[in-house]
Structure formats: C-alpha cells, structure tokens
Design brief:
The complex is a heterodimer. Chain A has 18 helices and 22 strands. Chain A is α+β, with helices and mostly antiparallel strands. Among the domains of chain A are: 9-52 and 67-100 and 408-476 and 583-617, FAD/NAD(P)-binding domain; 125-233, no CATH class; 260-401, Orthogonal Bundle (Guanine Nucleotide Dissociation Inhibitor, domain 1), CATH 1.10.405.10. In chain A, strand 10 and strand 11 (294-297) form a beta hairpin. The longest helix of chain A has 28 residues, at 53-80. Chain A is globular, with a radius of gyration of 27 Å. In chain B, strand 4 (278-282) and strand 5 (288-290) form a beta hairpin. Classes of the chains: A alpha+beta, B alpha/beta. Chain B: This is 9723_t:CDS:1. Chain B: It comes from Cetraspora pellucida.
C-alpha cells in the first residue's frame, strides 16, 4: 500500500536533494514556505552525493547499464512524451535517462591486493578442480607462495573457455552465461562469505554483459578474447572486490568532491544559518605541486613559506611580497596599474619576478586556476589569489576544510534538516512521473508522483535530472570534468595529514589542463583505516576520463604489482566524465533549475546561485537567517 | 522540538534574567565580605577555605583572597598532618587551579599559587606539569605566562637525572615546533636564546657540530625575516645571535696641571665613580706614596651631575709639585653608563706634568688622537659577546658579520624600505667597524653607509626619528674625528700602542674642531675633544650644550643655529672668551642667564641674538644689568 500524502498543495515542491536544491529547501522552509522535498534516489545528495562502496558500484552500473540499453528504448520514450492530465500538459520525466546524460566514459578497474605472507588464500590449491564445460581437462596450477595463477600453464584453458563462451550457440541468454561464469568462479573460490558471493555475482554479470556485447559482433578480436580469458582467471579481482564490499559502509565517496574555503559564501552561510552545528570538518593539511617527477609542498601561508626548504630566501621574499599584496590588492592599485587587462602571468613574472616552479605554484595551487592560465587576466588572477589567501589563518594554517563523512551529501542533509525543522516534508526513493504545465500561462502547476498522486505547488525547484527530456535539445556543449575515484592502500605523500591536495600544472603529465588530486584518509571518516581515497579531476580534454587522468595517477600509484613497497597500490579506480548541464530551451518561469556540480574545487558558485534563486523566488526575504538562540530554548512557545 | 517555531523572549523574561543577575552580584559581595571578616579575625578554618574557593572560582584575579587561602592551607597542614594528607591537599589544590585557569589563562595569581603549591607539596609531579603547560601553549602559543611557567617546570625537571640529559634538546625542538607554527612569537625565540647556550655546553658536541648548529640558527631566522621582514620577533633574535661586542672603556689620557695643581683624567665613556681612583707619586726615595685628595667630574652644573662623567679632576689636599704621578683605576671602582661597555682591566696611567696649554705650547699636555682611535676599537684579544654560544676568532666574527651584511643587503634589494633590514644593516656595519678599527678605510666607508641608512630610516620610520638622528650623529662625529686625525700634519705614520699607555713621542697638536651643517643631534664622546680650544658646531640640531663642561680648554665656541633651549655646562670654562648661541631655541631670559651663575671665567662675549625669548619681551637694559650682577665679565649681545 503506497503511502499517500495528506497535503497535496505546497508553496514549493523540490525535486532532488542535491546541494542547491537542499539549500533552497532550508531557506524556503525557514521563512515559512511549505516545502515538499522529493528524491528519486534512496540517498541524499543527487549528483553531489557521497556514496558507500556498494552504492557507488550500484550507481556505476545503473548509469552504465542504461547506456547499453538506451538505444532500443528511444522510440518507446518518444511516444510516452505526449499526454494530458486534467487539461494540463503532462510532461513525462525520465530520471534514469536524463541523469545518465550527465556522465560519460565511465569505467572502473579492480586491482589485486598486495599479499601479506600470512594471508589465507582465497583460492584453493587443489589440483583436482578443473575448468568446467571445457573439453581440455588440464588442471590449473596455483603458485604456493603468492596465489597468483601460473598463467604460463593454465592460460590456454581460460582462452579456450573464453572462446567457447563467445562463440557457443548454447549460451545466448545473459543469465545463462552469467551462471556459467559464476560456476567457474565458485569452483575455485572456496571461502564462501557473503561478500565473496556478492563479488562473484557482480563480476559474473559484468563479464556476461561484456560477452553478450561481443557475441553480436562478427569477428572476435584477439584483444577481446584475451580480456575475457584473463578476467575468467582473475580471482584476485574478486578477492579485492569482496574486501571492498565488506568494508563498503566505511566509505563515503563523493561523486563531486569539493572543499569548503575557510572564508567564503558557504562557510558564512553555514555559520549564520546554524547548519554548521550539524556538520563536522577537518582542516586540509597540505598542498603539493608536481614538477619533473617530484612533489613539492606548496608554500601557501606565511608559516609554509617560512618552513619550506625547497625555495630560496630570495624566492621566499618574492612570494611573500606578492601574497601580501594580493591579500589586499584593491588598496594598492598602483602596483598593478597597466596590468589589469594583461595576463596574470605577466604581472607575476614582470612585476613580481616570480618564475619557474614558484610561478606554477602561484597559478595553479594558490590562485587555483582550473583551466588555461592564458585565459586569466590580472584582475581575475588577483581575485582568485585573494579568495584563497583570505581563507588562510581562520581555522589554522589552511585555506580549506574537508567535510567529515563526505562533503556533498552531508552539507545537503544539513540544509534539509533545517527544512525539516521548519516543517518541510521529505520523501526519498520517490520518483515523479509527470510535470503538469498549464498551457495558457505556460506555468508549472503541479506534478504526478510515482503513486499517481497529483501534488500542486506555486514553484518547482528541480534538479536537471527530473526535467522532462522534451526540454533537451541534444548535442549541447556542456562544461565537462574528467574525474576519478581511486582507493589505495598508503599515503601518497609522507606527513600529508588526513587531507591533502596535489596539483599537476598543465603539460607536466601530458595534460592540457591542471589536474587536482584530493587525498583523504580515515581521519576524514570517508574510508577505513589503511585505506586512502584519491579524487582526481581535470577539465575534459582527451577521448575519455581515464586518458585525461591516468598519467597523473601513474605518478602516485603503483600499477605494477609489488614493484615498489613504498608506493601506494591501487585497489579500485573509477573514471568518469561529469557534465554541468545547461538548458537552452525555455522552461516555465516558475521552475527553478538547480544546476549540476561545476568543475571548481569548492561550493562557492553553487552557493551564490542558490542565493540568487532564493532572491528571485522570495524577493526581500532574508536568506537563511540564524535560528533562535539555543540558550533561549526554554522559551519555546 | 521539530516543527515548532520559537519566539523571542519577552520583556518580562528579560526582567527576570536581570533580577537573577542582580541577586548573583549581591551573593558574591556577601561572600567577599564574609571572607574578609574571617581574614581580619584570623580564622583559618574550613569555612574560610570554602569561601575563598567560591570567590576565586568566580574571580581568580583577587590576589588578596589567594594570600588568605595560602594562610588557611598552611594552617591546615601544620601540626600532625601526614605526608600523604599534605600531598592529597595540594593535589586537590592543583585540580582547583586547573579549573580556574580556564577563566583566565593569563592570571599572574593562578601561576603564582600553582608554583607555591608545587614548591610546598611533598611529591610534586613535574612531568604532569610539563604536559599541562604543553596544553596551555597549544591553546595559546604566545601566552608568556605559559612560557615563563614552562621554564620554571623545566628548571625543576632538569634537576631530575632521568630528564636532565635530553631536556635541553627536547625543549629546543619544542621551540622549533612552535616557531614553525607561527614564528611571530617572542616567547618562543626567547626560550631558544636561553637554550642555545646550554646546548653548547654539551661535551659530546665537537666544534664543527656546534658551528653547524649556529649556522642552522642563522638559516632559520633568515628564513623568518625573508618571509616577513616586518616581524620584529625574528629580527630581535637575529640581533641576539649576532650579539654586540662589549666595548672596552679606556682612559684617553691624564695630565697634571702644575698651575692649578689638578690632575685631569679623561675616559672615552661616561663612568660613575664607586671608589675614588688611586693617585700615587714618587717621593725622594723612589717610593710610591698615596696622594690624598678628592675627585669630581666636570659634568654638568650640579653636584649630582658630577657623580659621573667623561672627564675627572683630582684636587690633592696638598698643593705641591709632584713627580711621576700615577693614576690607578680598577674595574670594580667604576660604574659603566650602560651594559654595552665595561672596563676590563686595571688601568695605571702616568700623568704628564706641565702647564696649561693656552699659556705655553707645552707638548706634554695633550691627548693622543691615536689613543682616541685605538680606544674606540674592540680589543681583538678578547671578543666576548658570543662566548656564551660559541667562541669565535676575530676572523670568524668578521666573516659572520660580512655574510650577514650580504644577506640583509639582498633583502634590501627586494625591500628597499624595510626598516628592520636597514636597522640591522646599521648594527652589522657598526659592529664590523668596531672590530676592524676606527681608522681603517673600511670603517670610514661603513660610517658613510650608516649615515645613508639613517637618512633613509629618518624618513621611513617617523616614530623613531630621534633615535636614528642620534645614531647618525654618532657616525658623523666619529667620521669627523677620524678625518681630523687622518689630516693632521703631525699624525705619526705608525702607531705603537700598548696597555693604554700614552705615547711619549710623536704627538699631535690639534686645537680646532669644526663640524657644521650636519644635522647633529648629539656629541657622543665629548672627552675626545678635551684638547680643543676652538669649537664650531654651528648649524646643527643640538638640543643641549651641557657636554661643553667636559671641554675645559675651550676658548671659543660657535654653536649658533642649533636647537638649544638653555645655557648650561659653561660656567666653569675658565678660558672661554667667545660663546655664540645665536638663533637657538632659548625661550626665556632665565634659561640664558642661569648658565652664568657662579661664572669662573674671565672676559667673555656671549651672543644671544635671535633666540625666541628676545621677541617675547625685549628688555636689553634690564638683562644686561642682571648679567652684570651675576657675571660681570660676561658681555652679552642681544638683538632680536
């Protein structure tokens, strides 16, 4: 029996619990608006979400999965678009498909966990087990010492199985192929934990899907064959997956990882609104910059400059001179007179004589330029630098705070909590079928939810994911960010603390745009002890996310097994491209479209946007004023 | 609470709150009164103790109450109180202190009481105290109470063998941590300056490692002032590291004036006399006998002024012609004017006997310019300022100063207006000069640089203009003296100088000194000019002429166009014939007139024209009569 809403009229309905939607939810409820807040996901945060490992895999598969099947469904969807309900134009939403547009080139890889001597082998060492369904009954050999399959002897068997599965008429159905693969894995993996079973299932279904895709093609390439056959014998992959699934709940993996500047729009909003008391933060410890196979600590604050041993005394002075000026540059217009329209780089090199590594550090680690420095003029550069510098010293020697338990969902939930405190109604895992538009006025009037209940409101605040596909014109040029989430087993820099930022300036790892790597450790409550999460991001440039980021990752992580004990080993890497969509077609004016995460490292632009939306909806009203003094709680009416 | 809206407190609620506060104040005053009553009655009982607890947990800065509390505590532990009970009592006292510390982490009385407890308890836990003070300094790394307390705790811990070994090193590392967190921390640098000399006492450190340690210190502090040249904490530590050589006070010369039966003794610095200097003479049997008499300095006008000075006069009780008069001065007999100078060894000075210079060209009565210059030098055999951290040779000292000069100059290339850099450079240059000697070319160049630096600083650092004007005056004066000596026709080419003894051959007769239009604000060492008869210091910025009292041979003084506000220091100048104080800042007739009270000179022309007092109330006739009454030989010129 679906739970129907008692109240079906609201001031505002909000679709999606992303960052902007949630701020608006809090702000609107705070001033007394009635708010209904829905999310089709069963978690908070939408495209800004923090997921645990299992959820992340699920998310990956749901987004990827749709890619493979969407081709067939497009006709069907076109028919579904036109409908009328009670004289209103009913526009069908398609959350799954629309959300999928925001992502591309998704791929993940799972790596073997480096072996400890006393580890219990997951795969049995019994020679008697054989590969099923294959005529060749030769046995598989496992090395006693490190449990790595001795491929020289056994690989042909897997090749044979792979070839068999790819060509056999017998196994047309996805499920049946998956079953065969599952059996194959199970025959080798004797430790039957829940995670092992789950890992086998996930891996079998992934391989089955892969096989299914290639079955349709005429020629099976050697490459495909090799891939399938190695996957069939890759028990370590399952082993790693099982471990990650087991510790899944201890991960909070951000789809759009961001930092909170210690002075800025968001932090002031958190403090003023009182949302800060729901959240916990840690200071980001250090910033590193890469140049020619070495990572240097970036001297950002006065203390950093003082303690930094890689820059000379004269450089220290030059840098401090610039930083002191930039902090307060508007009071010294003479210093940059004539440079306003020139490149920021020109000001730095000509006026402040900053060059070499130091120049890179100022541009990419302090001003945090995310694209091409040749597009940044002096004023823009100074603004960026000032924004960074103002953040220093407020919460210790750092410019940024890192949210504990992930960033996006936590902050979004904080604002949702304000909304709930002031009477907002929440329903997660609740999707929307149609948006209703009054044709004469071209205004949004309400929606039909998954229970076919009609709910009306004056305003609709919606994540782009809920926008009916009819509004999308296709082939639009969206700001695209290549991202990666990588789980590793060691710190990438010694003494880097719980959170660190590493920056690759352009052209240092064959990258056109700067790449940032945010490393978090267990101290930030986003991963278990002895695990570290890397978030890589850069402006998209090459063919896919992996191509954009792999070189940077290669400098930090050991992709060759046991090559070097000191370098972190990867366990899992997810690459994807994430787009900040813009809608060029006309949307009814009472629909507020809350945007996707942008490519920046912070929430500043998004916060400003949320505030502007609020002012548009409720002119003259105060934006998230402080709640009552907790000391006066005794005077609740 | 969800879903319910809150309302503002009403006026009634506010009123209630105020009433509650008023009753709190009343209650507090009541407790204080009760406590004082106990104190007056000397009732050191449990109740008194509870009262002090109540007061101090609200107001930990009430030191009278702390004192009373100690009396109560002492009373409690006197008598048959066991050691364990005592320990228990003080332990709970320490806990109480920890609580009130939160109310005010910078209260002298809390720290005072804590020390008292620890000093009185049977088994103080110093390790615990160290942990506590670490926490304090984590909360506020610049709380000097905390640092002071830390030194106290460390001094106690270093008496415990198990800690004593490494405590210097760990403390030193602790200051490094704090400095790295924020180097703008005087307390941390200060702590370091206390620890570095102790670290150097480590016998396991060889000279090279000691030297490396010092080099590291210089690197650290350089990194700080390159990072922020405006942060004075780093500069002050740098100054401490460089150190200043203690300059040796020396006697410029001594002679016996046979006409007036007086010994004149001149120091190159102002000294106070604790024990009269000894005067001996050779009698007929070649025995040295003590000559009785009394000493006074020629400084200023009052008897108090004459307790110290540059130039001292000895008047023997018996006026007779002495042969081979010797004056002895021991270090412990004098008080230096400041800590930067000292008398290092006994001085035995043979007086030269003769008549006053203006009556005969007697060669004997002279100061040697060579001695003047030599004495301004540091004695190379005893560099002492940095012995506490690392004994250095003179060459090492010169090398250090030179390398620091380069470092600071590099900084000045980027920050030409950095006042701390400029000041440091002036210090370094002057230190170098004192080592290499006043009369070297390098020293002359250094002085020129210092003058340029001062000119800059006077413009940059308006709040300290006077200081830099004085420093500049010193450099100008020393340059002038040097020039005087260099250009003197009789200056000997070679100087042999030993044990502060005056040379008996190759003396120079210099009697005129001119230094005009240099913006001088002071004459740093007037005794150097002791032999001068004609002095021209016109067109400067001197504010006082009291130093003239030292120049007892003066005949003509031109000091017009300065900033002098009164006439003093001249009434004992017996040979003064001309005094030009035209166009100064003398505001009243009295300020001019009083300088001639007890006039001891002869005929003297004094030009007072162009001073402000004349414009105010021009009474030429009256003033001339008055002047005639106090000093009839003095003829004044007064023109508006």
């Amino acid at each position: 029996m679906p739970q129907l809403l008692e109240v079906t009229e609201y001031d505002v309905i909000i679709l999606g619990t992303g960052y902007i939607e949630s701020i608006l939810a809090g702000a609107l409820a705070r001033i007394g608006k009635s708010v209904l807040h829905l999310d089709a996901n069963n978690f908070y945060g939408g495209n800004w979400s923090s997921l645990n490992f299992r959820e992340l895999l699920e998310w990956t598969r749901s987004i990827k999965g749709f890619v493979e099947f969407s081709v067939n469904k497009s006709n069907q969807e076109r028919q579904e678009r036109q409908e009328r309900i009670e004289g209103k134009k009913a526009l069908m939403t398609n959350f799954t498909k629309v959300r999928q547009q925001a992502y591309s080139t998704i791929e993940y890889e799972i790596y073997p966990i480096p072996k400890q001597v006393d580890d219990i082998p997951l795969v049995e060492n019994d020679d008697s087990e054989t590969v099923p369904k294959v005529e060749s009954q030769e046995t598989l050999q496992y090395d006693q010492d490190d449990n790595i399959v001795d491929s020289a002897i056994t690989q042909p068997d897997y090749d044979a199985l792979a070839r068999f599965l790819l060509t056999s008429e017998e196994y047309e159905q996805n499920d049946t192929i998956a079953n065969v693969i599952t059996e194959q894995f199970k025959s080798k993996i004797l430790v039957r934990t829940r995670e092992n079973e789950e890992a086998i299932a996930i891996e079998s279904s992934r391989l089955a899907q892969l096989l299914q895709m290639h079955k349709n093609s005429e020629n099976i390439s050697e490459e495909t064959l090799r891939h399938v056959s190695t996957s069939l014998s890759n028990f370590e992959r399952i082993e790693t997956l099982a471990v990650l699934l087991k510790e899944s709940k201890r991960y909070c993996l951000d789809l759009a990882p961001k930092l909170v500047p210690c002075r800025g729009e968001l932090i002031e909003l958190l403090i003023n609104s009182g949302v800060a008391k729901y959240l916990e933060f840690k200071a980001m410890d250090k910033t590193y910059i890469y140049s020619v196979d070495a990572f240097d600590k970036v001297p950002c604050s006065k203390e950093d400059v003082f303690t930094n041993q890689s820059i000379s005394l004269v450089e220290k002075r030059k840098l401090m001179r610039f930083l002191t000026f930039a902090l307060d540059y508007t009071n010294f217009p003479d210093t940059y007179k004539g440079y306003e329209e020139k490149l920021f780089v020109t000001l730095l090199t000509e006026k402040f004589k900053i060059d070499g590594k130091l120049l890179m550090a100022v541009l990419y680690a302090i001003a945090l330029i995310r694209n091409d420095a040749n597009d940044v003029n002096t004023i823009q550069g100074l603004e960026k630098t000032q924004r960074y510098l103002r953040s220093l010293g407020r919460y210790g020697n750092t410019a940024f705070l890192v949210g504990l338990y992930g960033c996006g969902s936590e902050i979004a939930q904080g604002f949702c909590r304000i909304c709930a405190v002031y009477g907002g109604i929440y329903m997660l895992d609740h999707s929307v079928k149609h948006l209703l538009i009054d044709e004469s006025s071209n205004k949004f009037t309400g929606l039909v939810d998954v229970n076919d209940q009609q709910i009306s409101s004056t305003f609709l605040v919606s994540s782009i994911d809920y926008l009916p596909p009819i509004f999308f014109k296709g082939n639009e040029c969206w700001e695209t960010t290549s991202r990666a989430i990588v789980i590793i087993d060691k710190f990438i820099h010694e003494e880097s603390g719980d959170a660190s930022l590493t920056i690759y300036p352009p052209e240092t790892v064959k990258n056109k745009y700067p790449i940032t790597v945010l490393q978090l450790s267990a101290g930030t409550q986003t991963c278990p002890e002895d695990r570290y999460v890397l978030y890589l991001s850069t402006k998209a440039n090459g063919q896919n996310a992996k191509e954009d980021l792999i070189n940077a990752l290669d400098k930090l992580v050991n992709f060759t097994i046991n090559k070097d004990k000191g370098i972190p080993n990867p366990l899992f890497a997810l690459f994807y491209r994430q787009k900040k969509r813009t809608i060029s077609s006309e949307v009814p004016e009472n629909i507020i479209l809350a945007g996707d995460p942008d490519s920046s490292l912070d929430f500043e632009e998004a916060t400003i946007q949320a505030k502007q939306f609020f002012e548009k909806m409720c002119p003259g009203e105060e934006f998230l004023p402080a709640g009552p003094d907790p000391d006066e709680e005794e005077f609740i009416v | 609470m969800h879903g319910r809206k809150r309302a503002k407190p009403t006026a009634e609620v506010e009123k209630l709150r105020k009433e509650r506060e008023a009753s709190k104040i009343k209650e507090y005053n009541g407790i204080v009164a009760a406590c004082f009553e106990k104190k007056t009655k000397c009732e050191y009982d449990k109740e008194a103790f509870i009262l002090t607890t109540k007061i101090l947990s609200q107001n930990p800065d009430f030191y009278t109450i702390w004192n009373f509390r100690r009396s109560v505590l002492l009373n409690e532990i006197s008598g048959d109180c066991s050691e364990e009970e005592k320990q228990q009592k003080f332990s709970s006292e320490l806990l109480f202190l920890q609580e009130v510390f939160r109310l005010n982490p910078k209260s002298y009385w809390i720290f005072n009481h804590r020390r008292w407890c620890l000093d009185n308890m049977p088994n103080p836990d110093w390790k615990n105290e160290l942990d506590l003070v670490c926490k304090m300094l984590d909360m506020d790394a610049r709380n000097f109470h905390g640092w002071g307390y830390r030194r106290y705790v460390i001094s106690k811990l270093s008496c415990i063998d198990s800690y004593a070994v490494n405590i210097c090193k760990t403390e030193f590392d602790f200051t490094t941590t704090k400095i790295n967190q924020n180097f703008s921390n005087y307390s941390a640098w200060h702590q370091r300056s206390k620890l570095l000399p102790k670290l150097m006492e480590d016998k396991e450190l060889d000279d090279q490692r000691k030297k490396n340690l010092i080099d590291q210190e210089f690197e650290l502090v350089k990194s700080a002032f390159y990072t922020d040249p405006d942060d004075q904490s780093a500069w002050l530590y740098h100054w401490w590291l460089i150190g200043r050589e203690i300059r040796h006070i020396s006697v410029l010369g001594a002679y016996y004036d046979t006409q007036n039966f007086q010994i004149v003794l001149a120091f190159d610095d102002e000294v106070g006399m604790l024990t009269p200097f000894q005067v001996t003479c050779k009698d007929d049997t070649s025995q040295f006998n003590i000559v009785e008499g009394h000493w006074r300095s020629v400084s200023g006008d009052s008897d108090l002024d004459r307790m110290y000075g540059f130039v001292w006069i000895f008047t023997p009780n018996m006026k007779s012609t002495f042969t081979e008069l010797v004056v002895t001065v021991k270090p412990e007999w004098i008080v230096p004017s400041h800590s930067g100078v000292k008398l290092v060894r006994n001085i035995q000075m043979c007086c030269h006997v003769g008549q006053l210079p203006q009556q005969s060209q007697d060669k004997l009565i002279q100061m040697s310019p060579q001695i003047v210059t030599e004495n301004m030098k540091i004695d190379p055999s005893s560099l002492c300022s940095r012995e506490d951290i690392l004994p250095v040779t003179i060459q090492e000292r010169i090398n250090r100063l030179q390398s620091e000069i380069i470092t600071v100059k590099e900084l000045l290339e980027i920050e030409p207006e950095s006042k701390w850099s400029l000041q440091t450079l002036s210090i370094l240059l002057r230190e170098l000069k004192y080592i290499s000697g006043l009369n070297t070319e390098e020293a002359m160049n250094n002085d020129q640089e210092v003058i340029t630096i001062c000119d800059q600083l006077i413009n940059i650092d308006k709040l300290r203009t006077k200081r830099f004007e004085d420093l500049r005056s010193k450099a100008i004066f020393e340059t002038a003296i040097n020039n005087l000596i260099q250009t003197s026709p009789n200056a000997p080419q070679e100087i042999t100088f030993r044990d502060n003894k005056l040379l008996t051959s190759e003396k120079t007769q210099l009697s005129t000194f001119t230094l005009t239009s240099k913006n001088l604000t002071l004459i740093p060492t007037p005794s150097i000019l002791l032999y001068i008869r004609i002095l021209d210091l016109s067109h400067n910025k001197l504010t006082s002429i009291i130093f003239l009292s030292n120049l007892i041979h003066l005949q003509e003084v031109d000091i017009c166009n300065n900033c002098i506000s009164c006439i003093n220091g001249v009434n004992k100048l017996r040979f003064l014939r001309v005094l030009n104080v035209q166009s100064n800042l003398i505001e009243s007739w009295e300020a001019a007139k009083n300088g001639f009270v007890k006039w001891q000179g002869g005929e003297c022309r004094v030009n007072l024209s162009g001073n402000p007092f004349i414009d105010k109330n021009f009474e030429e006739t009256k003033w001339k009569i008055e002047m005639n009454e106090i000093a009839q030989n003095v003829n004044i010129t007064i023109k508006p």
